[in-house]
Amino acid sequence: EGKRTTRACMTHLRYLARVQRQLGVFHAQSHRKKLVGLRHRILTDFFGVSDEQMKVEREKSRSEPNAARDKLRRTVQVAKQIWNERKEDILRSVHNDASEEISRIGMHIARMIEIFKKNQSAGRELEFFLQELQREVNTIGAKAQDSEINMLTVIMKTEIERLREQVRNLE
Questions:
Q1: Do residues 19 and 158 touch, judged by C-beta distance below 8 A?
Q2: What is the pLDDT along the chain (171 residues), one digit of tens a residue?
Q3: pTM higher than 0.85, yes or no?
Q4: What is the phi-psi region of residue 50: left when phi exceeds 0, alpha when psi lies from -120 to 50, beta otherwise?
Q5: Angle at 115 between CA 110 and CA 119, to 5 degrees
Q6: Radius of gyration of the chain (CA)
Q7: What is d(CA 12, CA 115) in angstroms, rounded to the nearest whole number?
Q8: Which end of the chain is more exposed for a tag (fewer CB within 10 A), N or C?
Q9: Do 121 and 170 meet the contact criterion of CB atoms below 8 Å apart?
Q10: Model confidence over 78-88: pLDDT tens digits?
Q11: What is each CA distance from 132 to 61, 93, 118, 127, 153, in whole angstroms?
Q12: Strand, helix or coil at 97?
């Protein structure tokens, strides 16, 4: 009975690891879209420049280094202005970043797999990691603004509950 339960736990953990990797991909894509949007707003609102015009400016700065240095100074001044005017948008974007939580989920899953591979009876330690996994997933769910990420957090919560039942059977 114990070996079957351990195998079931390992299956749940492997599935959680796959979902965690997929969550990381969706999160990176979502975060990138937000940053591209913020960059576009900055270029158009503050510089009045399109993406195509920025490419032309980059090429020009390579051929004229002194002009590039002066332009950098002006850019820093504008960046300070942008920070003062758009601080809330920028901080909100940073606040919604769930990269750390996704990374910690991966570390918790890896540690739990190690415990199962060693065939240790570590019910309390496993319960602790399950609690931490639940906490991280809840945080991601609270930060998420994309339906795909929310869907994956629901899947992870369900899987964590199944895993919790299996761990209780081990004890």
A1: no
A2: 567 888 888 888 899 999 999 988 888 887 777 777 777 676 666 666 666 776 776 676 667 767 766 776 777 677 777 777 777 777 666 667 788 899 999 999 999 999 888 876 678 889 999 999 999 999 999 988 788 889 999 999 999 999 999 888 876
A3: no
A4: beta
A5: 145
A6: 23
A7: 14
A8: N
A9: yes
A10: 777 777 777 77
A11: 49, 24, 21, 9, 14
A12: coil
Cβ neighbours of residue 129 under 8 Å, at least 6 residues apart?
A: 108, 111, 112, 115
Question: What's the distance, Cα to Cα, between the start and end of the chain in Å?
Answer: 12
CA separation, residue 116 to residues 12, 35, 41, 47, 123 (Å): 12, 40, 50, 56, 10
Residue with tokens 């195998």: 7
Read off the tokens for 76.
């820093």
Helix axis angle for 123-143 and 99-117, nearest 10°, is 160
C-beta neighbour count of 31 within 10 angstroms: 17
The single residue listed with the structure tokens 């899953």 is 109
Can you list the pairs that 120-128 forms with residues at least 24 positions away whose Cβ atoms lie under 8 Å?
Answer: 121/170, 121/171, 123/167, 123/170, 123/171, 126/167, 126/170, 127/164, 127/167
